[in-house]
Fold this protein.
Amino acid sequence: MTKGFTLIELLVGLSIFSVAAYFAAPSLHRFIQKQHLTADISTVLSLMNSAKNEAIKSNTKITLCGKSNTVDCSRNWQELKVQSPINNQLLYSAKLTGNYRSVIWSSFQRKASLKFNARGYTDHLNGSLYFCHTSYPELNRVIRISKSGRATIYSDKKSIGKRCD
């Protein structure tokens, strides 16, 4: 007697696996997008801390903002940069990996950047960074930055408001 599976057993097993994969795929996609969001928020917080530490260490203002094709800053923070005012030297940069409709910086006087002074404080009042997800509105987030440079993450619709609608 030979050992192994018959063709019918293989087809039944394959069909059960296919049906299970069909129903699991949307949940898996949402899980992956949530992991990208978590990684992107960690990246932004890490860059903020690096900029703050660099400002204190170098005793100068350090700018964190969205990358643009020019030297200027962009309010779209899909790609970020940390730069020194000395020759606009690029210190750090990063690109976010999630599927976002927009990642927009909003602050006092509509400034496009977040600047840390030599004491580690921001130069202006509170600002907010909005992560507006393309596919899953429940993954929308906002990072609020206080004048002292402290970051707080919010996920409730009240905090996000109509920015991501």
About this structure: The chain is about 35% helix and 25% strand. The helical segments are 7-58, 157-160. The first helix runs from residue 7 to 58.
